[in-house]
Amino acid sequence: MSKIYFTLTGTKYYHGNEFLKPGMKLKLKKEPDNKFDKEAIVVKMEGLGEIGHVANSAHTVIGESMSAGRIYDKIGNTAKAKVVLVTPHGTICSLCKKSLIDNKHKKMEEAVDE
């Protein structure tokens, strides 16, 4: 499977995006009780807490990166990601392949087979 990219948005409501640099590690956490978006995924950074959300609107998703709705069923309750590119319009991040549900199931199957 090729890399999965998503747009980090809403950073202006937290800490801005000036501190973000390529390679920084992020943690994603589903927010099923979010009153605005049932597919909301919050993005956190160690030491800062919440820094934004995975974009889930045609107005906030940059280019062909995936929206929260498109990755929601591909991950468990949490996932890991890295910053790839920071722009004034949003930040492009890549989802860690180990966070994908398919890869987790493969690892479990391999462990059982051994």
From TrEMBL:
Gene3D superfamilies with a match to the protein in the record: 3.30.70.2330
Annotated keywords: Hydrolase, Metal-binding
InterPro entries per record: HIRAN (IPR014905)
Record domain HIRAN: where: 4-67
UniProt-recorded name of the protein: HIRAN domain-containing protein
Domain of life where this protein originates: Bacteria
Top-level taxonomy: Bacteria, Bacillati, Bacillota, Clostridia, Lachnospirales
Pfam families for the chain: HIRAN
Keyword Hydrolase: yes
